[in-house]
Amino acid sequence: MTGSHLGTRPAAWTAAIVLSVTGSGVIGSGVAHAEDIDHLTAQQIADRSRDALLSTESLHLSTRGDLGRGSTPMSLELTLDRAGNCNGSVDLGNSQGSALIVKRGDDIWIKPDADFWKNQVPNGGSTFAAILGDRYMKGSADDPRLSALTSTCDLNTFQKLVSDNANNDTGTLNKGAKTTLGKASVIPLTRIRDNTTLTLDVAATGKPYPLRLTIKGNGADAVVGFSAFDRPVPRTTPPPDETFDVSALLGRSTSPV
Most buried one in 82, 117, 217, 231, CB count within 10 A? Predict the structure, then answer.
């Protein structure tokens, strides 16, 4: 299945999201408090937002748009936790294909659509699609062909990226007036860097979770949503009659998916 990007592109996109946030200092470092943050400075709010994100046991990550830098617009909808469980979907954009993803414990299930097989595996995709039908591929989470996708499903990996890249505070961080995002009261934080404007909406009451990141300019136009903090990942997994062993489908090759 050489040449397929189902594993690598979602992982790279997630890393790019984190670097967009932390590399521009929109999320800082500090101690999260359950309080009204309206009176705090922009940096204090950024500090608390980062630690709120680092303290959560699980969350839902929703992304859509184009991060620029020659990337392709794509979207992710993933609920993930620190135990490495996840449930959701990835759409590679531009009719390049999409897939459903379920990971529970040491097992992972992937269900690509017809466009994925056609565009990501042009020299054999139709054969794989015909064999798989409407079933999920099931594999081991430690299968090297699935390693990039497995790491995307792990909240620990995401949080480590946040932690490791939170010290770059180039440019001025600005605090906007309190506003609303849906039913939530939020404080927007904005920083401009390399002709790109990043706006992070932070929950203004309760724990100061980051709720939405908007990235615009320099070829980028993307939105990242954070929600469902500390809510468990759905436990339902595909039944055996709806799965097909990934090794039986792909053979014993160690080429990454």
Answer: 117
The number of beta carbons lying within 10 Å of the beta carbon of residue 79 is 21
N residues, the chain: 257
Q: How far is residue 154's CA from residue 203's CA, in Å, rounded to a whole number?
A: 24
Look at the block and give the residue holding tokens 């969350």: 59
Q: Could you give the CA distance from residue 195 to residue 219 in angstroms, rounded to a whole number?
A: 9
CB 189, CB 46: distance < 8 Å: yes
What pLDDT is attached to residue 124?
65
Residue numbers in the chain where pLDDT is lower than 70:
1-35, 70, 122, 124, 148, 164-171, 251-257
Cα dist. 16→9, 10, 12, 163, 197 in Å?
10, 10, 6, 14, 15
Distance set, CA 195 to CA 15, 20, 70, 191, 217 (Å): 20, 13, 15, 10, 6
Per-residue confidence (pLDDT) for residue 189, from 0 to 100 = 94
Residue with tokens 């490791």: 164
Return d(Cα 45, Cα 31) in angstroms, integer. Answer: 10
At residue 129, the pLDDT reads 86
Q: How far apart are CA 200 and CA 166, in angstroms?
A: 14
CA angle, 149 as apex, 147 and 154 as ends, to 5°?
95
Max Cα distance, the chain (Å): 60
Tens digit of each residue's pLDDT (9 = 90 or more) over 21-38? 444 445 544 444 445 788
Task: Quote the tokens at residue 61.
Answer: 């990550």
pLDDT score, position 70: 67
Cα–Cα distance measured from residue 33 to residue 36, given in angstroms and rounded to the nearest whole number: 9
